[in-house]
Write a structure and sequence with these properties.
Blueprint: E1 10-15, E2 25-30, H1 37-42, H2 59-65, H3 74-78, E3 81-94, E4 97-109, E5 114-122, H4 125-138, E6 141-142, E7 155-159, E8 162-166, H5 179-183
Antiparallel strand pairs: 1-2, 3-4, 4-5, 5-6, 7-8
Helix pairs in contact: 2-4
InterPro entries: Ribosomal_uS5 (IPR000851), Ribosomal_uS5_N (IPR013810), Ribsml_uS5_D2-typ_fold_subgr (IPR014721)
Subcellular location: Mitochondrion
Family: Belongs to the universal ribosomal protein uS5 family.
Length: about 180
């Protein structure tokens, strides 16, 4: 079997006997260089430098770069209403202890039938809100309304033990629902 030069890379360091150690030693280091170093070098990265670190993109950065895919202009994005419905501290129990983060559930809309919701989690509340806003903008959907104020027909849905019933109502009837749903 012949070694593959790409997959079986190795460096050998020989230590001859000396006054302190009478034995001959050989250290073999296998696969310590990444197969992607050559591709990174072609792109202009200097992987041999100590300051090189791979870049990690954040969800908010990715959503900022994907705004050109949205049908909304930057002016329409600025005019969206934002309602953080729930802000709470959440805890994940691991084998080594508890990890605390912030959770934000946000509703975004233009007040004219366009609405979306998103949730974000992060150690910092502002970053969690930014993630929730980015997800809410991506999840936006159009709701067709009758006379720009109510829904066209009765709708109902059930998820687990929660039953949601929506009915069209006349002018001045108001809303009878949870305060979080009132924001929607």
């Amino acid at each position: 079997m012949t070694p593959d030069p790409l997959m079986d890379s190795r460096d050998v360091v020989e230590f001859p006997p000396d006054k302190e150690n009478r034995f001959h030693n050989r250290v073999i280091i296998r696969n310590h260089t990444s197969i992607f170093d050559e591709a990174l070098a072609e792109d202009g990265y200097k992987v041999d430098m100590d300051t090189y670190k791979p870049t990690r993109t954040d969800e908010t950065e990715e959503s900022a770069s994907s705004r050109e895919n949205l049908a909304l202009t930057p002016a329409e994005l600025r005019n969206l209403y934002r309602f953080p419905l729930i802000r709470r501290r959440i805890t994940q129990q691991t084998g080594k202890g508890k990890i605390h983060r912030q959770f934000v559930l946000m509703v975004v809309g233009n007040g004219n039938g366009l609405v979306g919701y998103g949730q974000g989690k992060d150690e910092d509340t502002t970053r969690a809100e930014a993630k929730a806003y980015a997800q809410a903008v991506r999840n936006m959907d159009w709701v067709e309304r009758f006379e720009k104020r109510t829904i066209w027909t009765e709708m109902d849905a059930k998820l687990g033990a929660t039953q949601l019933i929506m009915r069209p109502r006349p002018v001045g009837f108001g809303l009878r629902c949870n305060p979080n749903l009132h924001q929607v």
